[in-house]
């Protein structure tokens, strides 16, 4: 569009109000963040991992026990990088509490 202008660190479209950064952020799929377990081993989708400590689940009386094996993890973006399915349900876990098997 012709009606774009710079505003601080972003470009703004006056027609629709959409904003985007003036400098490329490098968040492409090729530059995906590397997720590492507690030992520094790189994790990927489909890996099997083990919990390295007991984890209490907020809002419930469930405790995920140390040594519990989780098969076929899925990596996602955000603070809790690992999405997994266990006997107790589906959970989002931080990679720092996991060890690759």
What is the topology?
Blueprint (H helix, E strand, L loop, with lengths): L3 E4 L2 E4 L5 E3 L27 E3 L3 E2 L6 E2 L4 E2 L3 E2 L6 E5 L2 E5 L4 E3 L1
Antiparallel strand pairs: 1-2, 2-3, 4-7, 4-11, 5-6, 8-9, 9-10
Decide which structural class fits the backbone.
mainly beta
What separation lies between the terminal Cα atoms?
Answer: 52 Å
Helix content: under 10%
The CATH architecture name of the largest domain reads: Roll
Globular, elongated, flat, extended or rod-shaped: what is the shape?
elongated
Record the strand order, biggest sheet.
1-2-3
CATH level-four homologous superfamily name of the largest domain: SH3 Domains
What is the third-level CATH name, the topology of the largest domain?
SH3 type barrels
CA-atom Rg in angstroms: 20 Å
The CATH class designation of the largest domain is: Mainly Beta
Sheet of most strands: 3 strands, antiparallel
The SSE order reads EEEEEEEEEEE
Number of domains: 2
What does this structure look like?
- With 101 residues, this protein is mostly beta strands.
- The protein has two domains: 27 residues, no CATH class; 69 residues, SH3 type barrels, CATH 2.30.30.
- It is built from no helices and eleven strands.
- The strands form four sheets. It has a three-stranded antiparallel sheet with strand order 1-2-3, with no helix packed on it. Strands 7-4-11 form a three-stranded antiparallel sheet, with no helix packed on it.
- A hairpin with a 2-residue loop joins strand 1 and strand 2.
- The protein is elongated, with a radius of gyration of 20 Å.
- The mean pLDDT is 85.
